[in-house]
What we know:
The complex is a heterodimer of chains A (about 475) and B (about 100). With about 475 residues, chain A is α+β, with helices and mostly antiparallel strands. Chain A folds into three domains: about 5-290, no CATH class; about 295-410, no CATH class; about 415-475, Orthogonal Bundle (Arc Repressor Mutant, subunit A), CATH 1.10.10.410. Chain A is built from 15 helices and 17 strands. The radius of gyration of chain A is 29 Å and the shape is elongated. The termini of chain A are far apart. Chain B is mainly α and about 100 residues long. Chain B is about 35% helix and about 10% strand. Chain B is built from three helices and three strands. Chain B starts with a helix and ends in a 5-residue tail after the last strand. The chains are: A alpha+beta (about 475), B mainly alpha (about 100). Strand 2 of chain A pairs parallel with strand 1 of chain B. Bound molecules: zinc ion. Zinc ion binds next to loops of chain A.
Amino acid sequence: MDYEVVIGLEVHAELATRSKIYCSCTTEFGGEPNTHCCPICTGMPGVLPVLNKKVVEYAVKAGLATNCNIASFSKQDRKNYFYPDLPKAFQTSQYDLPLCFGGAIEIDVNGVKKSIGLTRIHIEEDAGKLIHDAWADGTLVDYNRCGVPLIEIVSEPDLRSADEVKAYFEKLKSILEYIEVSDCKMQEGSLRADVNLSVRKRGQREFGTRTEMKNLNSIKAIVRAVEAETKRQIEELEYGGTIIQETRRWDDNKGESYAMRSKEEAHDYRYFPEPDLLPIVVGEEWLSQIKAEIPELPDQRKSRYVEKFELPEYDAAVLTSSKIIADYFEAAAAVNSNVKAISNWIMGDLMRAINEKEIEFSNIPVAPEDLAGLIGLIDKGTITGKAAKKVFDIMFETGKKPMDVVKEEGLEAVNDEAAILLAVKEAISNNPKSVEDYKAGKKQAIGFLVGQIMKATKGKAQPQTVNELLVKELEK
Amino acid sequence: MEITIETIEHVASLARLSLKEDEKIRLTSDLKNIISYVEKLNELDTSNIKPMEHVIPMKNVLREDIVNASYDRNEILKNAHESGEGGFKVPKVVE
Ligand SMILES: [Zn+2]
């Protein structure tokens, strides 16, 4: 039986404000437990919360950058439930009048473009942290994170595969990074996703029963959870079972999800308007002020790279997928006009080195000007492309300037015809079989000989000169 | 809206209240009376009336994004039934 999977995402992003949403405690990550707390964020009776203006502005920014409508009148509500990470026994959130609604972002999966609808973006407060391994007979609660502002970005059930989910999530992350409303550090929980997923027989109009997987905090976990849950639901149905509407917890170590035991009040949150907080009215003047602060977004930047730098779409998409990478590229392009070479180096050797060393792009030891300088050395013929790889590795290791590495390692290109000719002649006399093959018409034999010459010159001979001299000698 | 003893039990469990049987019976009839009293409002045509979102006619009461010192942790933990290791101690939470 052919099934179709239907997925909607709820993405929570911690906003990059300095202070919390309703009090002036710091939002800084970490800190000793319960040292970023006051009576407001620990829910003491009789306190009066006051909304942080930046929270509204950041949420509106996120709405504008994702093509949402911005509500001219919005309010906050209490979402009631008991859990130890929530000292007030309710989360201040937004129910029926969210700040932003009805948006869309475009994703691209293997060249196929698709628009994914956004139902809404609303503001709310984060909860505290439960630490389970402090005691055998109890759980430790740390309220530092309590009251850190969040936006929840709810998508329409428009996603149809793990690839689409990944593309959507990455696009959203990139937009939030561009507009600088969230640091999006997934390892610190600044960005996390709930996945709502159901399957249905292809062609069927009604949605199947969905399950929800909460708090997925890496892109890899999201993709794996989507794949596993899709498989689980299809298998369940194929064997005549039914899907139960439930919340499941994804265990990324085991690679499987399990139903959460908290049978809990079937989402009976009894929302009601928050009496301590007043309505939010975003008038035209305020809105246009916020609009003016929206920078160039990933899609616009991508188009500019294609037009201004004449880069292929693919390159432009990869480079602009993250603001840090795009900024790096532009800093290099400012000092070297060979933009295609810069793009190749970033997408190739630089990304490879980052992945191998498992470092963040923001901590790259090679300055963009130095990468541009390295490419300049190749273009001028100071070093060969082959030697450049070695220079790059040393730069990445040590943070040294390209020319310093070239000098220290003696990697200047040899373009001295006499010296190269010597190596050519040596290769010819040492490899009679290849020479014979070449003369018998097997032109590819030349590759082996070039390789031998490059080896003999430690990769420093200009390949073009090597080729010319070699052919000349062979044809003699 | 029909109010039964199950309604009372559901609402009580959501509010983490444990009620005795006679309390449940009394509350069922109390709540029935209250709801039917309020339901009188449904007799009015309110289709052209804007919902009141807030009782106070004010808007945009906001603060600037400025950090001030938090409370001393010992002050905060004074409100804990039980504490230790700098944290509130609660019964083991199982998910
Ligand atoms: Zn506080």
